[in-house]
Amino acid sequence: MNALGSPAQQSAADIQLRAAEWVMERRETASWTSTRQAALEVWLSQSPAHLLAYWRLNAAWERTYRLAALRATPSDVREMQHRGVWRRIFLAIAPIVAIALPGIWAAGYIQVSHELVYSTAIGGHKTVFLSDGSRIELNTGTTLRVHGSGRAAELVKGEAYFQIRHDALNPFVVEVAGHRLTDLGTKFFVRDEPRKLEIALLDGSVRFDSADPTVQPHSETLRPGDVAVATDNSVSVMRKSPQVLSDISAWRSGMLVFRDTPLAEAAAEFNRYNRTKLVVADAAVANLKIDGTFRTDNVEGFVGMAEHVLDLRVHGLGDNMTISR
């Protein structure tokens, strides 16, 4: 194998060629050793580009091999393996794939399976079980696309909890709001809002990178307890307590937890789950702090707290309820 320099010095074609060599060695070497496995994992960990190149070429190899096998007899396939035909073909096309892959992938020429789209309505909650044993829970008003072999997804909008089975050779990648999350064996939450993206890590680790050149460039490996918040202009990572992480995950049980939360912020949370919308009338009322735990659909209980605990007035008009002094 050839040394191709540091990740920063490598071109897309260099990375793609190196990934192709790794795919072929692992596929064609009869005695794949733990030493070679460790070397591969080191290379994969050096850059998200390495992970994606390996994953995509591995999928391309699988599909090419299956298509060829369908058109040939078993003896033909064995002869092609013996003569190294796969190796020559793959090395020849790797630089071309490096250039054309984004368009090819999008057009569907290198697909392992069709795309699946999952969504929830306002107030909805859905669990998606993937074929590899991973699971994804969708919160209210959420849309998720799962691509290819089931090891890549796009969170189009909303909030989701990911519990992913780790596979160093085929990492799970989530694209969301111009960023890429590469699973390194983990459980995490992702919440996409119009002007803010939030990632909370419960277990394992996840690589957080900018995937869109128009957003703030950033790369970070998140650890348990880390909460990353990305806006159009900044990215910050904060450590949060187990209690805060538990509060963040309360929606999985159909609950909302507020601790010293401004009333307007709490009302906005209820609005994510219900057709009836709460409107906070003025800044003084909006900044009142509350504590409490409510069912996501218990608008009446929240309104009752505002009336009887905070001594506020509530006026209803159609699907809107206004909270004021």
Q: What is the H/E string? A: HHHHHEEEEEEEEEEEHEHEHEHEE
Q: Overall pLDDT, averaged?
A: 80
Determine the fraction of residues in helical runs and give it as a percent range: 25-40%
Number of separate structural domains: 3
* CATH architecture term of the largest domain: Sandwich
Give the percentage of residues in beta strands.
Answer: 25-35%
Rg over CA atoms: 24 Å
Please mark out the parts with pLDDT under 50 across 5 or more consecutive residues, or reply none: 66-74, 98-113
Protein topology:
Elements: H1 12-28, H2 34-45, H3 48-71, H4 74-82, H5 85-107, E1 116-119, E2 126-129, E3 135-138, E4 143-147, E5 152-163, E6 173-176, E7 179-193, E8 196-210, E9 219-222, E10 226-230, E11 235-239, H6 242-248, E12 255-262, H7 263-273, E13 277-280, H8 283-286, E14 289-295, H9 299-308, E15 313-317, E16 320-324
Parallel strand pairs: 5-6, 13-16
Antiparallel strand pairs: 1-4, 2-3, 3-5, 4-5, 5-7, 6-7, 7-8, 8-9, 8-10, 10-11, 12-14, 15-16
Helix pairs in contact: 1-3, 1-5, 3-5
What brief labels describe this structure?
325 residues, Jelly Rolls, alpha+beta, Phage tail protein beta-alpha-beta fold, 9 helices, elongated, 36% helix, eleven-stranded mixed β-sheet, 3 domains, three-stranded mixed β-sheet
Task: Explain what the structure shows.
- There is one protein chain.
- The relative contact order is 0.07.
- Strands 1, 2, 3, 4, 5, 6, 7, 8, 9, 10 and 11 form an eleven-stranded mixed beta sheet that branches. A three-stranded mixed beta sheet has the order 13-16-15. It has a two-stranded antiparallel ribbon with strand order 12-14.
- The longest helix has 24 residues, at 48-71.
- By secondary structure, the chain is α+β, with helices and mostly antiparallel strands.
- The model is unreliable at 66-74 and 98-113 (pLDDT under 50).
- The radius of gyration is 24 Å and the shape is elongated.
- It has three domains: 7-107, no CATH class; 116-245, Jelly Rolls; 254-324, 3-Layer(bab) Sandwich (Phage tail protein beta-alpha-beta fold), CATH 3.55.50.
- It contains nine helices and 16 strands.
